[in-house]
Amino acid sequence: MIGVGKAKQYANVLDRPIGKGKQEVSLSAFAFLFSELVQYNQIQVDNIAELERRLEDAGYAVGARVLELLCHREKGNRREIRLLGILSFIHSTVWKVLFGKVADSLEKGTEHEDEYMISEKELLVNRFISIPKDMGAFNCGAFVAGIVRGVLDNAGFPAVVTAHFVPVDGQHRPRTTILIKFAEEVLQREARLG
Amino acid sequence: MAPAAPKSGDVIFASVDRVNAELFTLTYGAIVRQLITDLEEVEEVNKQLDQMGYNIGVRLVDEFLAKSSVSRCVDFRETADVIAKVGFKMFLGVTASVTNWDADGTTCSLILEDNPLVDFVELPDTCQGLHYCNILSGVVRGALEMVSMKTEVTWLRDMLRGDDVFELQVKLLKQVPEEYPYKDDE
Fold it and tell me: What is the pLDDT of residues B67-106, one digit of tens each?
């Protein structure tokens, strides 16, 4: 039956046609859900680093699936194998699908060869979040850092990814920078490929 | 000032900020997986999802009332209709239908054919007892409790378990009278 337009039953999830990714839910629905994710994890831990690690783990699971989905849908089952290629894939394709826009900037770290930064003035997950004073440098962007790490790791670019607030002159709210530090082997391979 | 006319779910959904449903779906999946890892018992996961939903429902109802301009429902039938047509639509972008009313109008079913929570999802054999969408039942229960209705919300049909639709049974247990100082506007 073609064109019934309703969700149908499939014996196997793999038989189901893959969506075009145009469906939307309200931002509040996501914000409510995300807030529950943070609150749940907050009671599971006794320090900030652990909380960020758990959020990052949750994000990693999302990133791994996003990579698979987008490589199939947007790239005709091809995936980037070069460093700049995968970074720009995250900065544009992944960001556009997940957050509705290309990330504000993608820069190379000035001090270290292996560091790259993706910055966002108002990261979606931080939009309704204010950090209590006693939680110091905690950044819910750890979830997004996890997504980025999930994409990179599964594409063969192991990296350490962290989220940081960076104050901006003349702005009340800081921007969030996702700092990517690639594993040594990635840079060596990149050098070999020339 | 006359109260604003109630808006349809479509109109509200078109006017609010939205995000890609896949981000929502995958994030929810990450939550469920985290709960399964942490709690191990499927029953405990069901309970925790319901609790999370309840927390959301309690907060979500304010936004719902503010944005929908829905006024007091005359009976539970109207309430169920508003949840299905306006509530589900404005948050999840899908509409539910209401059926299976009992004779005294206190129990009904919300039928969902489209459900953004379950894209890409398949229950493994070890999770057959999982009510994957249990967060939704919690949301409905929490939101209704904030408007003075104690309800019991249970899943009767679940597409992840091979049924043809999602069926959420909502049973009105009692109407809690509003107490001072919370006076009605009218």
Answer: 998 888 889 999 999 999 999 999 999 999 999 999 999 9
Task: Please judge whether A36 and B121 are an interchain contact, meaning their C-beta atoms are less than 8 angstroms apart.
Answer: no
Q: What is the pLDDT of residue A172?
A: 85
Contact B30, A56 (CB under 8 A): no
A132: containing domain? 27-193
Tally of domains within chain A: 1
Query: Given B30, B63, B92, which is nearest A61 (Cβ)?
Result: B30
Helix H or strand E segment including A178:
strand A175-182
Architecture of domain B42-175: 2-Layer Sandwich (3.30)
Average pLDDT of the residues in B28-51: 96
Tokens of B109: 């079913």
The minimal CB distance from A7 to the residues B24, B48, B114 is found for B114
Residue A6, pLDDT score = 45
Judge: B22–A69 Cβ closer than 8 Å, yes or no.
Answer: yes
Q: Determine whether the interchain pair B16/A23 forms a contact, defined as Cβ–Cβ distance below 8 Å.
A: no
